[in-house]
Amino acid sequence: MAEIVIRNLRKEFGDFTAVQSSSFKIEDGEFFMLLGPSGCGKTTTLRMIAGLELPTDGEIYIDGEEVGRQPASKRDIAFVFQMFALYPHMNVRKNISYPLVSQGMPKHQVQEKVAEVAQILGITKILDRPVGGLSGGDRQRVALGRAIVRDPKAFMMDEPLGALDAEFREHMAEELRALHDRMGATTVYVTHDQLEAMQMGDKIVVMNHGVIEQFGTPQDIYDKPATMFVADFIGSPSMNFLRFHGQVLAGSTSVSIHHDEISVPRLQEPFEGDMVFGIRPEHIALTDTGTYRGEVLAAEYLGTTQIVTLKTANGELKARIPSGQPVRVGEYVGLDFNGATVTLFDNQSGRALK
Ligand code: ATP
């Protein structure tokens, strides 16, 4: 069990800064996601926590002890890679036992421990099989077995499901989360897949170009994106952005877009300039009465819902509506926005207005 605190952590490779000064806290027992597009610095952050990369600056505390310059072997952290390397000449049992045997644990204890782990992972029946002929899922379970067998303080996982096909990946994600819930060990998990992060994580750090854009629960990040980058990266289809020039007064609960007063959550600070009105597709309703109008460009049937693409005076947007509601391409419809769910952004900084 471990609480991990990251303070002003930074990493440079030559004159390139891969991770800008970052701070966040991972609570004991949390399933914690590092999420962002390729090259944003997730893996580098994870490797610094694990002790595989030396920070340029900043501190890493594990259970209150600063470990940023300690070797990986002193940190008691298990690392699970995407390209999990199993020892091909050993069977499943030997692969899982290996970390304990190399620690010098007595044989009977090793056997007990391996049996316990195999039971947790549901691989008791394949313990004596060679790893060569195993399915992708079983290989992953063996790799996990080897990681959990020595009861580390925390797990670091770098896209562990990345090599699996979509359907199986979802199944393994559920299995991994269930395993975490049973064991309760602090887990830091790197992924570029927003759905995986939302489904599995207790908390998420969203990174972009080495910078933390937002840190919070999946719900916080979905409902209250701190930046346009986060709003766009999370959710599918992603949040709609309507650009307009305008003014909001402190305490105001509406904005004027294209001659229409549209309600928004109360703003604490006044703002005038180029703004972006952000709304998720499921928070738009198509009505006969709405005065803000759009032309239906397309409708995509998805079973219980349909995604309707509309052209408005401020740009295109997508609405997710019940598939039973009739829409015709080419017709003009009124749009109703659920004001409580709107996020307004400063177009220049990309940050949400407060
Ligand atoms: P991916 O999912 O593609 O691995 P990532 O978010 O994990 O992306 P990192 O692997 O942390 O990103 O890399 C961040 C940036 O740092 C990238 O631009 C990468 O090229 C660079 N980088 C990583 N390791 C090194 C290194 N050893 N030397 C130089 N540059 C590096």
List keywords for this structure.
354 residues; alpha+beta; Rossmann fold; OB fold (Dihydrolipoamide Acetyltransferase, E2P); six-stranded mixed beta sheet; five-stranded antiparallel beta sheet; 20 strands; 24% helix; binds adenosine-5'-triphosphate; ABC_transporter-like_CS; cell membrane; ATP-binding; nucleotide-binding
Give the structure's gist in a few sentences:
This protein is α+β, with helices and mostly antiparallel strands and 354 residues long. The protein has eight helices and 20 strands. Bound molecules: adenosine-5'-triphosphate (ATP).
Q: How would you sum up this structure, described in words?
A:
By secondary structure, the chain is of the alpha+beta class. The chain has two domains: 4-230, P-loop containing nucleotide triphosphate hydrolases (Rossmann fold, 3-Layer(aba) Sandwich), CATH 3.40.50; 242-346, Beta Barrel (OB fold (Dihydrolipoamide Acetyltransferase, E2P)), CATH 2.40.50. It contains eight helices and 20 strands. It has helices at 42-50, 92-102, 107-121, 136-148, 166-183, 194-200, 218-223, 228-233; strands spanning 4-13, 16-26, 31-35, 57-62, 65-66, 77-80, 154-158, 186-191, 203-208, 211-216, 240-248, 254-257, 260-263, 271-279, 284-287, 293-301, 305-312, 315-322, 332-337, 343-346. The chain has a six-stranded mixed β-sheet with strand order 6-7-8-3-9-10, sandwiched between helices. Strands 15-19-16-17-18 form a five-stranded antiparallel β-sheet, with no helix packed on it. Strand 4 (57-62) and strand 5 form a beta hairpin. Helix 2 runs parallel beside helix 4 and helix 3 (107-121) packs across helix 4. It is elongated, with a radius of gyration of 25 Å. The chain binds adenosine-5'-triphosphate (ATP). Adenosine-5'-triphosphate binds next to helix 1. Residues 13, 18, 36, 38-44, 192 line the site of adenosine-5'-triphosphate (ATP).
